[in-house]
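Here is the promised in-class demo. Please do not try to memorize the tokens; focus on the logic of going from shape to residues.
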């Protein structure tokens, strides 16, 4: 018998996304000592009726490290706390959304209504995918609606789980619908309007080409989601979230015991009225997160009252539901620590300066594609459509003149880079919606990355066409 023991092969385990994001914060802390600090000068500018701080092109200058705060060992761990404090508004939106919709689900109103819907749809259940994705897509493309759809994540997840699919399908219908719509913006006031105004391009010009982009990208996304739905319906083991706990756990069989009642109808009316008020408030009245959370609280209390719950029962169910979102809430705060570290060391503008300089000597044939890559990278450090526009377009617009790309195409590259990477970077909105939907970020990446590659290539092709036709 041989004395040499056979070594067991260790199976590689993917680290939790929280560890990956924390490692990125650590990398940012190291870079805060290495990367030169610097800043642009900013000026106040009226952009479509709103005063914004806009970068002044050509004003970048380095700042001595003695004037900034690079992140040390203790500061690194303190950045996690500061990130959570900085992202407190978003964290509480996540908790309030999950708490609210957990209460609504536990009233049973969705069980009975979804059961009724499924019975009426019969074998045509997959129609919900293109219908809802187009609706969410139009909201993102035309109105720039993102947070307005937060409340729909638990609803669509519950619907697709009850239909015998999985939570990822319902999540993808909302996420891909709204964010791909945002990427394929047609009249989006938060990306197109700001970028074109700053770049000196006629407001909302080039609409026809952007409509084609919207239809193309939405079509690709819908086909991808339908293909996934058919795959997991045939073999549930192929679900990327198989065995994972979801915020909605009822099945199609469970729904057979639910009969739609008058109180169920009143709960759904409560939801509908709340959503209408919320959309008007966010779009017309300038509401923000405080009003959104307040309205959700009222909605859940009204629903509990309709179902004759005691105050103690409402509290217990709300807290129990909010627990599901704790991981996503903490991840959002930790990811915000990346921005905190970069702001302390004043290296954010440095990255903008050097990345934009890479484009100066780019061949015209690939300059638009490089502009897309740079804008995609920018969205990691500036995860805001309007914020990225005011920080980069004053630089990218005149730069496009030098490299032989029209300013209209430069705006398109910004729109593409900002929109799609919202579904990719842990500093962007995907972390927020994963928290609301109770979906682990690594599971989302497993589902999304093949589609990301397809859409990114599609973006490059459309930019090439834009350059060829003189868009």
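The designed amino acids, position by position:
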């Amino acid at each position: 018998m041989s004395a040499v023991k056979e070594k067991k092969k260790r199976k590689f385990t993917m680290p939790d996304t929280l560890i990956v994001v924390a490692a990125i914060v650590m990398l940012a802390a190291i870079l805060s000592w290495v990367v030169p600090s610097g800043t642009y000068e900013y000026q106040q500018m009226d952009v479509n009726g709103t005063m914004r701080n806009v970068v002044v092109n050509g004003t970048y200058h380095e700042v001595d490290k003695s004037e900034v705060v690079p992140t040390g060992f203790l500061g690194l761990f303190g950045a996690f706390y500061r990130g959570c404090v900085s992202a407190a508004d978003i964290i509480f939106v996540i908790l309030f959304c999950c708490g609210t919709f957990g209460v609504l689900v536990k009233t049973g109103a969705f069980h009975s209504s979804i059961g009724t819907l499924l019975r009426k749809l019969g074998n045509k259940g997959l129609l919900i995918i293109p219908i809802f994705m187009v609706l969410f897509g139009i909201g993102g493309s035309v109105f720039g609606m993102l947070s307005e759809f937060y409340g729909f994540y638990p609803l669509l997840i519950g619907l697709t789980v009850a239909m015998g699919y999985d939570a990822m399908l319902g999540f993808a219908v909302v996420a891909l619908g709204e964010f791909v719509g945002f990427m394929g913006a047609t009249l989006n006031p938060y990306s197109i309007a700001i970028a074109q105004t700053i770049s000196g391009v006629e407001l909302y010009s080039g609409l026809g080409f952007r409509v084609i982009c919207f239809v193309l990208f939405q079509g690709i996304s819908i086909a991808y989601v339908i293909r996934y739905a058919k795959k997991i319906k045939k073999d549930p083991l192929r679900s990327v979230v198989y065995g994972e706990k979801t915020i909605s756990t009822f099945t199609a069989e469970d729904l057979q015991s639910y009969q739609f009642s008058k109180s169920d109808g009143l709960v759904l009316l409560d939801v509908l009225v709340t959503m209408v008020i919320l959309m008007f408030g966010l779009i017309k009245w300038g509401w923000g997160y405080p009003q959104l959370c307040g309205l959700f609280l009222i909605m859940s209390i009204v629903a509990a009252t309709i179902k004759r719950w005691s105050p103690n029962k409402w509290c217990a169910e709300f807290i129990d539901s909010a627990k599901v979102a704790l991981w996503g809430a903490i991840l959002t705060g930790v990811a915000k620590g990346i921005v905190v570290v970069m702001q302390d060391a004043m290296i954010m503008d440095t990255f903008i300066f050097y990345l934009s300089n890479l484009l100066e000597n780019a061949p015209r044939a690939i300059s638009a594609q490089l502009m897309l890559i740079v804008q995609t990278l920018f969205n990691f450090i500036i995860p805001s459509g309007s914020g990225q526009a005011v920080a980069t377009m004053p630089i990218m617009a005149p730069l496009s003149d030098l490299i032989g790309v029209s300013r209209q195409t430069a705006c398109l590259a910004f729109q593409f880079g900002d929109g799609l990477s919202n579904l990719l970077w842990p500093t962007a909105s995907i972390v927020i919606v994963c928290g609301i939907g109770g979906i682990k970020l690594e599971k989302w990446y497993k589902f999304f990355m093949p589609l990301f590659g397809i859409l990114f290539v599609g973006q490059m092709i459309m930019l090439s066409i834009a350059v060829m036709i003189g868009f």
